[in-house]
Write a structure and sequence with these properties.
It is a single chain. The protein is α+β, with helices and mostly antiparallel strands and 572 residues long. The protein is 40% helix and 15% strand. It has a five-stranded antiparallel β-sheet with strand order 4-7-12-9-10. Strand 2 and strand 3 form a beta hairpin. It is globular and about 90 Å long. The termini are far apart.
């Protein structure tokens, strides 16, 4: 009896094992894959980078000049092929820091190492990027560097404008795009600010396999929490597009009413809910989608509509064009977008030219495919094929900047802080004393981004910023002017590429010189001045150099920075 029962149980176990094995084999065989020829990947990836450059170059002159209004058609710049060479744009160069981190340390690099690398970046930054980097340089490690408790810009657009890289190295792999956002997006953003980047990256990942813009947008939505205001905003745009398929300006007004004029959707706006300036990720994400939907896969129309929506009107067409161009491929782009591309131009503070950028993307995508469980095969002709498993993306948990979760109490160790070579900056007084000994400084904003910087081809410069619209930053020194000979003050000054400022020179309180320092008055961003002081021969006179705001664009993040390359008293 016992032996028979044992035999029955053993037989049943064998049968059950065979059944389970068969089920497992069946499930494995049902795993779906997408196949992408490596040469097609490279063609589309190159187009994605070019699309970003085209969008930001074309929309650049309009950035934040139209807030809460549609840009008039006649104010839209005309495309010129040389606009493609955008090597000084934060919309592009920031993400190359992330690529460099991945290139050096691999896809498993820690968030802390990513933070150290970002802290050591040398380019100009604004808003969430600027605040996040400042936190990192002061020892606040990620994810706290992007947490709303430490970063009042956490819902801003920043990771959204620089997440393209994540999708361009993750074709058909939205989960990888999400994962990269959790690593790099948290350096500066949180909540909707983070979701904007994961949404954009998810759309790029789909653009390698899909041409339909609505399907690409819905693929991006799957990468973020559906309960978020960001997802609500994009879903609204899709709905309003269905209602108004031939009238994008009507949909624009619906976006304006709900996501710009309604304080409930600007609860963490860095400039306040009443400001016409809106750098929130949601509304600018809506403008990306506007170009993609109403552009009807037309390259020009897509960029123009995203730009004409206003607000951050160079970043938004950059994302929209990057995604659209990816679907088309570099080899199919019109010559007007490729003929003037400078293959030798180097992106600001990075080791990358366009060819090197393509090469590093080609390297990282292979790692991404391996990490995602894919493989690389060869077809009958010997051509390499990416075989990419189809997996549903899993968004992170819902976060909201206005009701944030707890901080991680994350701080860099002393050993890690020693790796941050730019932390923290000298005071402005210390910087000025090194740059122009004996001069004093008053009414200037103190910020890590100001002070001494090195500019290629110029050398060491001093950056200042006025304390207010009516409160200029003042550099001053008492100079003893000899009785004989000719005495003068030699100045070399420059400006932020996006704005100008007013240089005022005073002697004992009397204005003796004034110049607008901007695009129209400088050569390669700088001007040389010689201020004659002969009228004060034999006297000791108080000389004041004023960095005066000219329009006050602090809220846009385009600072009326005084860039001082030379301050020299000469007596001949």
């Amino acid at each position: 009896m016992t032996k028979n029962l044992t035999t029955i149980f053993l037989t049943a176990a064998v049968i059950l094992g065979l059944v389970l094995t068969a089920v497992g084999d069946s499930e494995a065989s049902e795993q779906q894959y997408r196949r992408l020829a490596v040469k097609d990947y490279v063609d589309k990836m190159k187009a994605g980078w070019v699309g970003q450059m085209a969008g930001v170059g074309w929309g650049g002159p309009t950035e934040f000049r139209y807030r809460g209004q549609v840009i008039p058609e006649e104010k839209m710049p005309k495309w010129k092929p040389e606009m493609i060479n955008q090597f000084e744009q934060d919309d592009i160069y920031v993400e190359m820091t992330f690529l460099r981190t991945l290139e050096l340390h691999g896809l498993d690099v820690s968030m802390r190492q990513a933070g150290i690398d970002f802290a050591n970046s040398g380019y100009d930054l604004w808003h969430a990027n600027r605040a996040g980097r400042k936190n990192l340089r002061h020892g606040i490690a990620p994810p706290d560097s992007g947490h709303p408790q430490f970063n009042e810009h956490a819902d801003d657009i920043d990771y959204q404008i620089e997440a393209d890289y994540a999708g361009l190295i993750s074709p058909g792999m939205p989960s990888m795009a999400i994962k990269l956002g959790e690593k790099f997006g948290r350096l500066m953003n949180y909540g909707d600010g983070l979701y904007g980047g994961q949404f954009v990256a998810g759309m790029y990942a789909e653009a390698f396999f899909e041409n339909d813009m609505e399907k690409i947008i819905r693929a991006g939505l799957k990468c973020i929490p559906q309960q978020s205001q960001y997802a609500e905003c994009i879903s609204d745009v899709l709905k309003w597009y269905k209602h108004n398929p031939n009238d994008w300006e009507k949909t624009w007004q619906l976006i304006e009413d709900k996501y710009h004029l309604n304080p409930a959707y600007r609860r963490f706006s860095c400039t306040g809910a009443d400001s016409d300036f809106n750098i929130d990720a949601k509304i600018n994400g809506a403008y990306i989608v506007m170009g993609m939907l109403y552009g009807e896969r037309d390259l020009d129309k897509t960029i123009i509509i995203s730009t004409r929506c206003g607000q951050d009107s160079d970043c938004n067409p950059s994302n929209a064009a990057g995604i659209l161009f990816t679907t088309i491929g570099f080899s199919n782009l019109p010559a007007r977008f490729t003929s003037a591309l400078d293959s030798e131009g180097k992106f600001s503070h990075t080791p990358y030219t366009f060819p090197k950028l393509v090469d590093v993307s080609k390297k990282l995508v292979r790692q991404a495919i391996e990490h995602s469980g894919g493989r690389i095969e060869k077809d009958a002709a010997g051509q390499e094929i990416f075989v990419i498993p189809v997996k549903e993306p899993k968004p992170g948990k819902l976060e909201q900047c206005w009701e944030p979760g707890p901080i991680a109490n994350s701080r860099f160790t002393e050993a890690e802080r020693k790796k941050i070579i730019k932390s923290p900056a000298k005071t402005l007084e210390e910087s000025l004393d090194e740059f122009a000994p004996g001069w004093d400084i008053d009414d200037c904003i103190e910020d890590d981004e100001l002070g001494l910087h090195d500019i290629e081809g110029i050398g060491t410069v001093l950056l200042t910023y006025p304390e207010g619209q009516e409160i200029p930053c003042v550099l001053s020194k008492r100079l003893a002017i000899p009785k004989d000979g000719k005495s003068s003050l030699k100045l070399v000054v420059g400006h932020d590429p996006n704005v100008d400022w007013e240089l005022i020179v005073k002697a004992d309180g009397k204005e003796i010189a004034r110049s607008t320092v901007g695009k129209e008055t400088t050569t390669n961003g700088f001007m040389n001045l010689s201020i004659d002081l002969s009228d004060y021969a034999g006297q000791t006179v108080l000389i004041e150099l004023l960095n005066q705001a000219n329009g006050w664009q602090l809220e846009t993040g385009h600072y009326e920075t005084g860039i001082w390359a030379k301050i020299e008293f000469v007596s001949e």
